[in-house]
């Protein structure tokens, strides 16, 4: 996502807890586009003080921060009845609380300065359909969906826009374990009307639109990018097998 934003001309601070992976991302962007476009800053989004320090550092590096993408997430598949309170908390604290800490801290700064800004939250379509097997993540994403709509309306009149993207399956990061298995990959793709997995750059392009001045009148909206997956194929899945079809 950061690389695609830089290709589109942005300067970006990439954040996470692991210094090495952030430095690796910046090195790749430097290698492709030259130095000075991307910077690495560590943060733990579960900790409001860490978030405030990250935003201070980002402002030092970029001059002004115009946008925020809440991308951090955590997930492990588990039957709901086996999930411990600690396991539920572990995911909700990253996804829901982390999104709140970053958004509220930066939103307050923008409002206090009387300037606008744009937030894009990274959801999934199961934020509104639910997702058996990952109740912790689905609950947290559902909370972020409500936060998106609430703040989208609450701050729209003061120039702070809050929107979301809802990507389908991408063969990257946390879901590599699914799409990496050829049989599971085939079954995933079979269920997607568009007939392929999503490319990470396509998510980045959608997020870039919502961050951009082309979207100044878009507030509290969710842009779904899942090749029709959450709509399902419906009858079309069996079309060729239906009796009496011409
Ligand atoms: C249609 C499109 C769908 C695509 C959806 C994609 C969504 C994504 O979000 S992808 C991003 C996924 N990324 C990751 O998952 C990153 C790697 N994962 C993690 O870092 C862990 O899963 C984490 C979130 C649990 C990390 O939290 P951490 O606080 O470091 O975890 P602890 O080891 O301290 O454990 C806390 C708590 O959670 C229980 N637990 C951890 N892992 C599991 C597991 N695999 N199964 C069951 N329980 C687990 C652990 O036992 C602790 O609970 P208590 O013992 O009760 O305290
Ligand atoms: N992959 C997919 O198919 C889909 C993904 N999504 C969403 O896209 C986003 C990215 O997913 P994906 O790239 O697959 O996942 P990854 O696991 O690769 O990325 C998650 C990122 O979150 C960071 N992170 C986790 N916990 C924290 C924390 N406490 N503080 C700061 N950063 C943290 C991780 O870095 P570190 O561990 O170093 O802190 C990592 O860089 C997520 O919001 C996910 O829900 C949505 C739909 C589909």
Describe this structure in words.
- This protein has 246 residues and is of the alpha/beta class.
- It has one domain (66-241): Rossmann fold (3-Layer(aba) Sandwich), CATH 3.40.50.
- Helix content is 46%, strand content 13%.
- It is built from nine helices and six strands.
- A four-stranded parallel beta sheet has the order 3-4-5-6, with helices on both faces. The chain has a two-stranded parallel sheet with strand order 1-2.
- Helix 4 links the parallel strand 3 and strand 4.
- Helix 4 runs parallel beside helix 6 (135-154).
- It is globular, with a radius of gyration of 19 Å.
- NADPH dihydro-nicotinamide-adenine-dinucleotide phosphate binds next to helix 4.
Q: How much of the sequence is in beta strands? A: 5-15%
Distance between the termini: 45 Å
CATH topology: Rossmann fold
- The CATH homologous superfamily is called NAD(P)-binding Rossmann-like Domain
Uncertain residue ranges: none
Write the layout of secondary structure elements.
Blueprint lengths: L1 H6 L4 E5 L2 H15 L4 E5 L5 H15 L4 E4 L14 H29 L3 E6 L3 H4 L5 H20 L5 E8 L8 H4 L2 H9 L9 H12 L10 E4 L21
Parallel strand pairs: 1-2, 3-4, 4-5, 5-6
Helix pairs in contact: 3-4, 4-6
The site of NADPH dihydro-nicotinamide-adenine-dinucleotide phosphate has 23 residues, from helix 4.
């Amino acid at each position: 996502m950061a690389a695609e934003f830089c290709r589109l001309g942005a300067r970006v601070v990439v954040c996470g807890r692991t210094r090495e992976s952030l430095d690796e991302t910046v090195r790749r962007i430097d290698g492709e586009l030259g130095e000075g476009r991307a910077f690495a800053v560590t943060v733990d989004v579960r900790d409001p003080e860490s978030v405030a320090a990250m935003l201070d550092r980002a402002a030092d590096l970029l001059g002004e921060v115009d946008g925020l993408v809440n991308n951090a997430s955590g997930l492990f598949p588990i039957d709901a009845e086996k999930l411990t309170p600690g396991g539920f908390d572990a995911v909700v604290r990253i996804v829901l609380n982390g999104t709140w800490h970053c958004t509220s801290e930066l939103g307050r700064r923008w409002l206090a300065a009387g300037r606008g800004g744009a937030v894009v939250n990274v959801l999934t379509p199961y934020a509104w359909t639910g997702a058996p097997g990952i109740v912790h993540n689905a609950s947290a994403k559902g909370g972020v969906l409500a936060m998106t709509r609430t703040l989208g309306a609450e701050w729209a009149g003061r120039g702070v826009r809050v929107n979301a993207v809802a990507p389908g399956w991408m063969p990257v990061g946390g879901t590599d374990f699914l799409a990496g298995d050829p049989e599971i990959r085939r079954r995933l793709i079979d269920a997607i009307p568009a007939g392929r997995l999503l490319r990470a750059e396509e998510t980045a392009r959608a997020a870039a639109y919502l961050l951009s001045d082309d979207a100044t009148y878009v507030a509290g909206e969710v842009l779904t990018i899942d090749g029709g997956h959450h709509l399902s194929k419906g009858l079309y899945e069996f079309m060729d097998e239906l009796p009496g079809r011409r």
